[in-house]
Design a protein that fits this description.
This protein has helices at 3-21, 28-35, 82-98, 119-135, 154-167, 194-206, 210-216, 234-247, 269-279, 336-345, 352-355, 358-372, 381-399, 405-411, 417-442, 449-467, and strands at 39-49, 52-62, 70-76, 104-110, 144-148, 226-230, 250-256, 259-262, 289-291, 301-306, 323-327, 348-350. The protein is α/β, with parallel strands linked by helices. It has a 7-stranded mixed sheet with strand order 9-8-7-6-10-11-12, with helices on both faces. The chain has a 5-stranded mixed sheet with strand order 1-2-4-3-5. Helix 10 (336-345) links the parallel strand 11 (323-327) and strand 12. Helix 4 packs across helix 5 and helix 6 crosses helix 15. The longest helix has 26 residues, at 417-442.
Length: 472
Amino acid sequence: MSNSKQARFFESVQTNFDKAAAHTDIHPGLLNQIKVCNAVYQMNFPVKIKDSYEVIEAYRVQHSHHRLPTKGGIRFSHLVDQDEVMALAALMTYKCAIVDVPFGGAKGGVKVSPRAYTEEELERITRRYTVELIRKNFIGPSVDVPAPDYGTGEREMAWILDTYQTFKGTEIDAGGCVTGKPVRQGGINGRTEATGRGVFYGIREALLDEKILKQTGLSKGIAGKTMVIQGMGNVGSYTGLISQAEGDVKIIGLSELEGTIYSEKGIDMQAALDFRKEHGTIIGLPGTQTLERADWIAIECDILVPAALESVITIENAHRVRTKIIAEAANGPTTAAAEDILNKMGVVIIPDMFVNAGGVTVSYFEWLKNLSHMRFGRMDKRFNQNTYLNIVSTFESLTGKSITEKEKSFITKGADEVDLVRSGLEETMSNSFEQIMEVYKNKKDIGSLRNAAFVTALNKVANDYLTLGVFP
């Protein structure tokens, strides 16, 4: 991706902002405050790589301070630049507002290609980046809370936590300085799958809405719908796995760096992941046909899921789209100009700021867990289990009939942490979708779900500025 393309990403976010702002009654001065990035920190620091030193370029952007702490992932990519990080930070503000997570938006980026470094070298880079954030007060449980993003994961978050605790060891809530950590180091069960699971819940909600069904001509419900996924990283993988296992979706196309595969009969997501892990490619997966890498966009399907990087659906290729619904599992995969074309084609776009908000929602749960110093379910799991068992036993006694131990175990099960996380995420995605659809259905000439989502977010952020006294 060229720098000009990244610049267009930020420009696209701002264009979408302006389109939605026209449908609000928010004062122009307040809109300008919401639109701009409040703080941009660019840093360059040396790290020893092999027998020499490299100067690493990195960023942390805090888009909005209407709520604290700010929140957003850290991206490791050789394509990182300031405009990209600013665009992603802005999206985080709107995303948090939509799902009622009380954070301001932020984002981080380190301009490195993870594949080019050893694990030890990546650890040095990550720890040094964290030190720079600490020095400028750009990290902390009440200040700014990073998380994983493209090119990072649990490992990097563990390094960040350890580095922060080295400097802030007496801070009782230090564990809340970063989310997406390994469970054994203060992470939360269900975080790894969270974004993909949120995508599934978002698509499922859309396919229950009568207005969207009328627009697309699709039948009610997610079961049996065909899906194509571009990107088999964390988000794309879990979107596919959960959609198949819990939604009975038929995945007919998958695309990665090495190319695109297609099967009219359907592709088993787990088999595809296992094959790629063993062979380093999805090309050659038994029962599939190989297509050109760019051809994922032209496969006819019910649901198209871009789950990799931004700006992959552009004015150059939008006319090739042959789907009814695009679920933006990635951040900003559709440019503003491409969306205009797709809207005219009748394609419904479920916007990224809603449908991929599962990650930040569960990160919020992890942050709350860290501040409370308590695993979810610890206090009430056994109490609930015993209560349900007593109810079942009472019914058995009154009716003179009994159920099997397997049935009894299922009915009386108390909620584990992962059960509560999934339940909380499902509730969040459902409520947020209802709020967006209320605007979409009642706001005249709103035009698209993205505009409706933006309006929903802008009204909440503006209200925070005014009621919290941040904007005099």
